[in-house]
Design brief:
Blueprint (H helix, E strand, L loop, with lengths): L2 H8 L9 E9 L2 E10 L5 E5 L2 E7 L4 H21 L17 E4 L2 E10 L5 E5 L2 E7 L4 H36 L5 E5 L6 E3 L4 E5 L7 H13 L8 H10 L3 H11 L6
Length: 262
């Protein structure tokens, strides 16, 4: 473990079930990447990468040595991941929606209908392919755009969830026949899909802007994780058996993924 990490880690307070945290930066590809470590009352440990940096959630129930082991492992994983995919740290632009704007998601067109209301609550719904936004009057420009983006994502997740779920189950029945616990859509910016050991599959809403062949690749990729929980040679062999040209889909996401945002 790097010496800097050891020093920072050794001075962390340990307070049982109370959360503690620390923050520092590491150098990856000549870029200073922020790292946050949260010690929480949780049964497991997790790590994620987003445009804000690396976030580790470490169980406060582990011994200091076990915590250090997880942090060391997560740091190595994150550095390798960012080295291979520096776009993980890219900041996506903030979309500004206007009244009457047409939003294309796959083959479906939505019209943005923007209204303002008194009070502090903002709401949205889809009605006959209109995404009707009712935003609280008087929001700052940043809060306005954030609220609109959040509500549009929420509407689209509800609209497309059964469609994506059906497609995942079709592919699973055809190629894998594994148990799926749940399928969920989320506006994720650091990944296109995720599959847990328990069979919970999360697909990023951003993927819906991609061609259907690319969408199918990500769905197949996550379904393959129901059998192989890592990116081993066996995993990639299974993916290639089902979609021999999967590299083309990966290349598409690398080249055009930055254009897919809400």
């Amino acid at each position: 473990m790097p010496r800097m990490m050891t020093v920072l880690f050794d001075v962390l307070p340990f307070s049982g079930k109370n959360e503690t945290h620390t923050a520092f930066t590491i150098d990856v590809n000549d870029t200073q990447v922020p790292v946050r470590i949260l010690f929480e009352n949780r049964p497991n440990c997790r790590v994620s990468i987003s445009k804000t940096g690396i976030l580790m959630r470490i169980s406060s129930h582990l011994t200091k040595e076990e915590q250090r082991h997880h942090i060391d492992k997560f740091l190595k994983w994150a550095k390798d991941k960012i080295h291979d995919k520096p776009q993980l740290l890219d900041t996506l632009p903030q979309r500004r929606y206007t009244n009457g704007e047409i939003l294309r998601v796959g083959d479906t067109l939505f019209c943005i209908s923007l209204f303002y209301r008194e009070g502090t609550k903002s709401t949205a719904r889809i009605f006959r392919n209109n995404i009707v936004l009712q935003l609280a009057r008087g929001l700052s420009p940043e809060a306005h755009d954030n609220a609109a983006s959040y509500l549009v994502a929420k509407c689209l997740a509800k609209y497309f969830q059964p469609i994506i779920s059906q497609r995942i189950h079709e592919l699973n029945e055809r190629y894998f026949r594994q148990k799926i616990h749940s399928v969920r859509l989320k506006y994720a910016t650091s990944y296109w899909g995720h599959c847990s050991h328990d069979g919970n599959i999360v697909i990023s809403l951003r993927l819906l802007f991609a061609p259907q062949r690319v969408i199918d690749y990500v769905l197949i990729h996550e379904l393959a994780h129901l059998i192989h929980h890592n990116h081993s040679d066996k995993f990639w062999k299974l993916v290639a058996q089902i979609m021999p040209d999967f590299q083309q889909a990966e290349q598409h996401l690398k080249e055009y993924g930055h254009k897919y945002y809400l």
